[in-house]
Amino acid sequence: MSEADVLHRVVVVGGGFGGLQAVRSLRRAPVAVTLVDRRNFHLFQPLLYQVATGALSPAEIATPLRVILKRQKNVRVVMGDVREFDLERRRLVLDAPENGEQGTVISYETLIVAAGSRYSYFGHDEWRPFALEIKSVESTLAVRRRIFTAFEAAEIEEDSKRREAWLTFVVVGGGPTGVEMAGQIAELAHDTLARDFRSVDPRHARILLVEASERLLSTFPPRLSARAAQTLERLGVTVLLETSVVDLDDQTVVSKGPDGKSKHVPARTIVWAAGVVASELAGALAAASGAELDRTGRVAVGPDLTIAGHPEVIALGDMASVHDATGNQVALPGLASTAMQQGRYAASLVRRRVRGEPSQPFRFVDKGNLATVGRAHAVAEIKGIQASGMLAWLIWLSVHIFYLIGLQNRLLVLTRWAFSFVTRGRGARLITGESGPTTVADGSSTGARQG
Ligand SMILES: Cc1cc2nc3c(=O)[nH]c(=O)nc-3n(C[C@H](O)[C@H](O)[C@H](O)COP(=O)(O)OP(=O)(O)OC[C@H]3O[C@@H](n4cnc5c(N)ncnc54)[C@H](O)[C@@H]3O)c2cc1C
């Protein structure tokens, strides 16, 4: 009989921020852990927008799960796509990647599901191929291709109207990702590429940031939202508030502003950074357990993050909606720090159970909120203290380097940033993959920061 047969078996689905934290926090526990992910790497999503704009390469923000966990002897990593849960028999079913192996069954005593979230197109899935999202490595590389191809196409376009459309970039959604993307595209056009073309002047690019509500960064205090908007305008971004996208295709974005009038904007590059829904595994858990889903598809969990009637099943991170002891939903930000705290808590819950101790409810510690707006400019709210500009940017930089996994990636990213800061250059401007409208066959469900 192997050790795994006698130990308490914990299966963790998702090697993102929450799942990986749960696995690592179980390193000294007398349990046999199986980590299942459809990807073979952990992705540091907060820096994806830098990959989209050529500042970083994907491998600098992604680390293979086997590398991260190679010294943790109580973990087995399985690459596979989980598709259903059999909660009664305490097992899940997954499809192994590429080799045609389907229906592999894994049994557990405790199940932790942290499968993240994805972008929602508000019922307009037909927009997906035209308005790409910053979510997975594939979709981000497709965005990078679109952005850099647009400048190349403008360079050889002789018709002025069509050239203008190539040089118009629309970012939909004024949350942190939209703000970061718009700021980076502006810096790319006005700084990095400014002298690289002969027929076209990239500084003539128009960058529109479209936000349906009355301010950007709605999870930040209004003062910081205003600062972010001012900085973006200074960088050359046109911020359109109280404006909704009502239609789009590969040539045009149709928006409706506060005056209620529709506006057609010819634009060849559209980036989607609006609306988040939970991973489809939240729905699978709800179907298997009878738990409720909220309007963004997150599965309801109790104060100890377990599913009602199934104390052995924990759901956490972007895909879970926590309820207190009286059944009221607790508002928690859809951030990496929330998922990581919940991952650590889930591990402590498992350890307590194995020791036969009662559980304590999960307590969230607000670690603050950060977003970069541009070079040397960020906004930050930490423990009620608000900061913007260079100071906030330095905090942002330190936090991101600290949480990035692996010494090698930390050093590489720091070196890249130092180099870009001095030269205003970007080292990863390759145009790869096929051109034209793209449906990114992503298959992953990486998290999308909410708000
Ligand atoms: C562009 C972007 C920028 C962001 N910036 C920030 C930021 O600056 N600060 C911040 O705090 N947060 C940020 N976030 C949000 C943060 O990344 C998420 O809140 C966090 O990733 C949630 O962690 P999670 O563990 O719930 O899910 P994730 O980290 O998304 O992990 C989910 C994992 O589950 C796997 N998975 C999904 N479905 C399956 C399946 N069926 N079978 C097997 N595996 C599966 C996925 O491959 C993935 O590895 C950002 C998000 C995005 C998209």
What can you tell me about this protein's structure?
The protein has 451 residues and is an alpha/beta fold. Among the domains are: 3-38 and 80-118 and 277-355, FAD/NAD(P)-binding domain, CATH 3.50.50.60; 122-274, FAD/NAD(P)-binding domain (3-Layer(bba) Sandwich), CATH 3.50.50.100. It has 12 helices and 26 strands. The protein has helices at residues 3-6, 17-25, 48-52, 65-68, 137-156, 160-166, 176-192, 222-235, 280-289, 336-355, 390-403, 407-423, and strands spanning 8-13, 31-37, 41-43, 62-64, 75-79, 81-86, 91-95, 104-107, 110-113, 117-119, 131-133, 168-172, 206-210, 237-240, 244-248, 252-256, 262-266, 269-272, 276-278, 299-301, 306-307, 310-315, 320-322, 369-374, 377-382, 385-389. The strands form 8 sheets. The chain has a 6-stranded mixed sheet, with helices on both faces. Strands 11-18-12-13-14 form a 5-stranded parallel sheet. Strands 6-7-8 form a 3-stranded antiparallel sheet. A hairpin with a 4-residue loop joins strand 6 and strand 7. The protein starts with a helix and ends in a 28-residue tail after the last helix. The relative contact order is 0.17. Residues 438-448 have low confidence and may be disordered. Flavin-adenine dinucleotide binds at residues 13-19, 36-39, 45-46, 48-49, 81-82, 114-116, 134-135, 176-177, 279, 281, 317-318, 334-337, 339, 444-449.
Strand order in the sheet with the most strands? 5-2-1-9-22-21
Low-confidence stretches: 438-448
The pLDDT mean sits at 92
Largest sheet report: 6 strands, mixed
End-to-end span in angstroms? 50 Å
